[in-house]
Design goal:
The complex is a heterotrimer of chains A (323), B (325) and C (327).
Chain A: E1 3-5, H1 6-20, E2 24-28, H2 38-48, E3 52-53, H3 59-71, E4 75-82, H4 90-103, E5 113-117, H5 133-137, E6 143-145, H6 150-162, E7 167-171, E8 179-181, E9 195-198, E10 203-207, H7 210-224, E11 229-233, E12 236-238, H8 242-252, E13 255-262, H9 267-279, E14 288-292, H10 301-307, H11 311-322
Parallel strand pairs in A: 2-3, 2-4, 4-5, 5-7, 6-7, 10-11, 10-13, 13-14
Antiparallel strand pairs in A: 1-8, 6-12, 9-11
Helix pairs in contact in A: 1-2, 1-6, 3-4, 7-11, 8-9
Chain B: H1 8-33, H2 48-55, E1 63-65, H3 71-76, H4 81-88, E2 112-114, H5 123-136, E3 142-147, H6 154-165, E4 170-176, E5 179-180, E6 183-184, H7 195-200, E7 205-209, H8 213-228, E8 234-239, H9 257-265, H10 268-278, H11 284-307
Parallel strand pairs in B: 1-2, 1-3, 3-4, 4-8, 7-8
Antiparallel strand pairs in B: 5-6
Helix pairs in contact in B: 1-2, 1-10, 1-11, 2-8, 4-11
Chain C: H1 2-16, H2 31-38, E1 46-49, H3 54-60, H4 64-71, E2 95-98, H5 105-119, E3 125-130, H6 138-149, E4 153-162, H7 184-187, E5 193-197, H8 201-216, E6 222-229, H9 258-267, H10 269-279, H11 285-308
Parallel strand pairs in C: 1-2, 1-3, 3-4, 4-6, 5-6
Helix pairs in contact in C: 1-3, 1-11, 2-3, 2-8, 4-11, 5-6
Chain lengths: 323, 325, 327
Amino acid sequence: MRELAYYEAKFEALNEIMTGDERVHLINGTFLSLSPHRHVFQNLQKKFSARMFAPPISELGFCGLATGAAMAGLRPIVDLSTGSFIYEAWPQVANEAANAYSMSGGQTRVPVVFHLFHGLRGGGAAQHSGSPQAMLWNVPGLEIVIPSSPRDVKGLLKTAVASDNPTIFVDHTRLLDVRGDVPENDKPIPFGVADVKRSGSDVTVIATSYTVQVALQAAAKLAKEGIEVEIVDPRTLVPFDLATILSSVEKTHRVVIADETHQSCGVAAEIAARIAESGFDRLKSPIRRVSTLDVPVPYSPGLEAHIGPSEARIMDAVRAALA
Amino acid sequence: MASKKNNSKEVIALLRRMWLIRAFEEKVSALYAERQIVGLLHLGIGQEAVAVGALSLLRDDDLVYGGHRSHGHAIAKGADINKLMAEIAGRATGYCGGKGGSMHIVAKECGFITATGVVGGTIPLALGAAFAAKERKKRQLAVVFFGDGAGQSGPFHESLNIASLWQLPVIFVCENNGYAEFTPLSAHTKIERLAQHAKTYAIPADTVDGNDLFAVREVMSQAVDQCRAGKGPAFVECLTQRMRGHYEGDPAKYRELSQLAEWKKKDPIARVARVLKNQKALTDKELAAMESEAQALAEKAAAFSLSSPWPAEIEVDSQVYAAAS
Amino acid sequence: MFVIRHFEENLVALHDRGVFGGHYHLYVGQEATGVPALACLRADDYLFTTHRNHGHLLARGVEPKKLFAEILGRVDGLNKGKGGSFHSVAPSLGFLHSSGVVAGIIPLSTGTAYASKAQKNGRLTVCLFGDGSLEEGAAPEAFNIASLLKLPLLFLCENNGKYGTGRAVAAAQSSSMAAYPLTDLPKAYKIPAQQIDGIDAGLVHATISEAVEKIRRGEGPQFVEAQTVRYPGSATNWPTVPAPTDTALAWDVSQVPENAREWYRSADPLLVYVRELVEANQAKRDEIAALESQVKSAIAAAVDFAVNSPYPQPEEAERDYFAKSPL
């Protein structure tokens, strides 16, 4: 099994997607944010420049363009780059794209993918560190995909493009250099199927995106204390696989949810509610959330590190769940 | 009448300020290269004549808004460079206690209200400040800086429209340095001069060589007079260049090296120095001394910043909400 | 035009009887723009419209009974009752999406134009919106992108902002838009733009034909501002019908309430057209009256159909909001 860097797997996917379907157009960014691996994007540009459009700084305008193009049969992938910039395009994403299929009585499909990088990136400060996926989860009509590994990003990106629904592809710059196994001739990963990233019997840790990687590191340290955590990665928020999580809870009876959206009405809040509703009698201690604190993201590095779902906070929560 | 005296004394003071900005930015750049400063950093080296020229005509109580490339704007408005550098370095002694960083500078006491990381994000805010200023009837005005990249954003147009309709005392200063992030303006729009947009909304507009301190002051002085007289908004487009990439770390391969050489000839600081020399107002020695002084002040600011404490972790919870007043 | 007019007047009656709730907007007074303009298009062109869409949909050939049913929220409606007046669509006729958000469709229209250009299928997109849309930042963003990419896109702005000042006067400066004339906005992006009298059906047809030709030749986007005088029935918070339309009004407005009389006398595009036809000997008064009569019957039947169409089952609310995944 070959090992690839996340960004390599992602661009392998983009290449295969662009080669396989000429309806796919790429709009706006490089899908790499400020990563130094520019060459992979430039290679893509050399092959597919006619289907790649770099618009002016008009997020509202070009997200609308992508949505309209999808209605007309193209399958655009828009890179908003910094996730907070989706706020500039909110009306088109949440009020047009999300509603079109339903309010047309199922007649108009919108196969668009909105790709963005969310979360704490190291000095991004308040306006460049947003994680809008929790707000977007509250907009019916949007699929939300959130990979955490090289294999997942490749398989999920393919499904996102194949889907006829508007899809938010939530990525993270801190994942780009993570390495992992990616099979040759991999298959697209279906939505609504969670993945157990680590087996364990003591506590179920549900984590998303880059926080999965943080949780894996926390788990390795906890193992030395004799605590074996099971890490479940939902991979998609919409549709959501509750069954896999409940199976894990059946086994461990204890839950910690670690995620980078802010605590109030965050991703962890929704997952906690679903587990409490359906799995209450399997729990032996209250569900614990490790979310980004409810404060605008401060700039200074120590402050930024303090507010996120860090390894230390995850470990504390796991121990508390077992206490 | 806005003062735009161009007597030597005044010009020397302006040059000193331009040098301060230049030295500050170069020091910040060096600290970034040493990884003493992290995150996103956008320097205004090469654009000093706009900041100093435009803001030298304002009153202390006028309100200034910037963008992501606003260290120079804050300094030109009178910000304390120690507190400014400390903020960029994320220290507790910074203007925002380390919470804002480079793109979110707030130096309220000197009238620099805020910068922003969102392209064009402060344009509607400046509108609001102008609206409030109009209500106060003290002939106060608002000035907002943004780049050519903001010209394509919807809120920019909405703000021009509203400012014109309501005759708000706001001056839109566009620093057209020909590049929005990594792309030349021509790839973003067919319009070459953003002043055109202002004219569409019946706002008087001028385009000027942004590397010419005197030209900027001349045009700005007219804009300020008009605004203070209650005759509505004005638009000043300054053609300039940034001598670095979009952000620190940007290798800027998209620009030809020959272009940069061309632009170095237009260096706004060198131009003012030449004028003063020709007027025999300053000698080479004095000019060099001015440069050294600025660099010494920047060094001091760096020393202050790096020896300042980091904000305590408990500070994340402070100033999230304002207490009732 | 008669179809649109009688549709809209019947709609007001239905609303006033309490048959449906929610706000709605009439196309009365703009028929001479929509009908000839849409007649210039091909069957496979795309159209986007706003909350004021009834006239556009009907002009393009949507069945009145299905539009009534949609506005009434019935299962036989265009969107199966899920959209309502604001969001009525007819994809087979090119209406993929209608937005109730002012300027919501303007960026979308750049998308279908982008797609047509990429797919090289010769399809044109028409973006139909009102003067108010130009106040939204989305509009200049879209103009910029359309001009940059030379998109096959016709921006048709229906400026119905004049109030009862008679036809001869050009639309006055809006109190909410500093640019004047409005065509300055697209022109700033080098998009050819012109203003025309939207009440002159022949002029509208000729202008739009020419604009469409240019777009099909690959010359890039075009902008036309068609000016009309706002219908007195639209001047209030909720639509009203000051005087029910009848061919006879083309020659005698004495029965029309005084405050609306001038509009019917000189600015009602349908009556203007009726007079034109008669004066040019292209139709006789009684032929027109007979045609109107037929239309009235057809509309009455359409109303009947809609009122008798069932409501969708409540559980339908939870269905069909995602397209099935291929996996």
